[in-house]
């Protein structure tokens, strides 16, 4: 909800927002692995976005550690946006330290760019409003 509210406010201020679900984006990248032009189009859509909102970043089945391929794609996107100084909003079930443990280059770039601009809530039972009756 917080990420959506932030995006809504940025849109009111004239910013262009691109929303992607990580699982869907990753699937598109894997499917186009051997189709260079198509994959470049996908990368361009997310790396050129004024503001990119990545929902469920690095989400895997059973919250397993992301694969090397997934981390590689994530780093490529984050690094391009990092170098271009573009705003990226992440929702994820992983704390920043976990992302750093998965891949230091990826986590380090995210940590540096989010200094003072991150909200992290540790997972605790009962916090997921979807599980409440």
Q: Unreliable runs, pLDDT <50, ≥5 residues? A: none
The number of helical runs is 6
Number of strands: 3
Output the helix-strand order. HEHHEHEHH
Tell me the distance between the termini: 19 Å
Biggest sheet: strands side by side, in what order? 1-2-3
- Which whole number gives the mean pLDDT? 90
CA-atom Rg in angstroms:
15 Å
Largest sheet: 3 strands, parallel
Judging from the principal axes of the Cα atoms, what is the shape? globular
Assess the beta-strand content as a share of residues: 5-15%
- Look at the helices and sheets and give the structural class: mainly alpha
Helix content: 40-55%
What do you see in this structure?
It is a single chain. The chain has 133 residues and is mainly α. Helices cover 50% and strands 11% of the residues. The protein is built from 6 helices and 3 strands, in the order αβααβαβαα. The chain has a 3-stranded parallel beta sheet, with helices on both faces. β2 (51-55), α4 (68-83) and β3 (87-90) form a beta-alpha-beta unit. α4 (68-83) runs parallel beside α6 (104-114) and α5 packs antiparallel against α6. The longest helix has 16 residues, at 68-83. It starts with a helix and ends in a 19-residue tail after the last helix. 21% of the residues are buried.
